[in-house]
Request: fold
Amino acid sequence: MVALAQKSRLITTADIYNSLFSGQTFRWRIIDKKKSIYLGVIGNTITGLRRDNKRSLTIFSSSDTILEKSPVDFFTDYFTLDIDADTCLPEFLKTEKSDIWPLLQRYKNIKVLRQHPFETLITFMCAQGIGMKIIRSQVENLCRHFGSRIETSIDNDTVVVYSFPEPETLASLKPHELLSCTNNNHIRASNIISAAAAVADGSLDLDSLRSPALALDEARNALMAQRGIGLKIADCILLFGLQRFDAFPIDTHVHQYLAAWFGIEEAAKSLTQKRYLSLQQKAITLLGPDLAGYAGHILFHCWRKEVKRLDTAL
Reply:
């Protein structure tokens, strides 16, 4: 049994809870909400996070390295601590949006995570059109059935977790084997297998899509060449898995806040592909070309929590 024997301290004011449970990742679990303790799996390393005070975290891990980095270096990168929270939200929100700004102060320390590209690709392909509770269940099924089993002990209780499946593993499956991981959607299962095969054989090179030298449209088109990946899912993969913080996904909630908070008349109409691209350009103009997606995610979570009153940890 693996033990979380390694312990490190990370100095940060990042909002860990709302970062992990804001709809950008689906594999972290809450061990003790009152004590702010969370458990996750990065590669084959089990990791625990505990918020000790407003300025520091304790990192527990089953290895002295996480993906070849020290735990502190890994989570400094994972939580994008190199990006100053004060630069993510444009100044006009403070000076011109007195109705929104006080709400945003509760979420301004949310961090957009630097996640593993393949895991992000597959989880967002699983996530189309369903709620977060079902997404978490599907992704857990995927890992349980096709990842590697890992055990640890927490407070003398055995906890079982699973690594994320490798591209070659998913590429070798038949669609019926993935139905419990795709809400019984045969077409979605087939699309996931096809995307995994493209990563496995190198025809979809996710690492190359991270490069800022590659135009965002080109990176998005490369993802959309895969069956089952449309505009929104491609933009989610770019933002959350490929560190393209200028990518701006638009779902129902983003569509709603663009209309309600920013008075964009076009956002009150149905979301066609043409309108999606038009609204996205308007949002990028409002929020800035470099971190529009980053700011958009903070706005998205604020809208869900403060206006829609949704519990995103479920």
Q: What stands out?
A: The first strand starts at residue 6 and ends at 11. Residues 88-112+243-314 form a domain with the Endonuclease Iii, domain 2 fold (CATH 1.10.1670). The chain is about 40% helix and 15% strand. The chain has a mean pLDDT of 93.
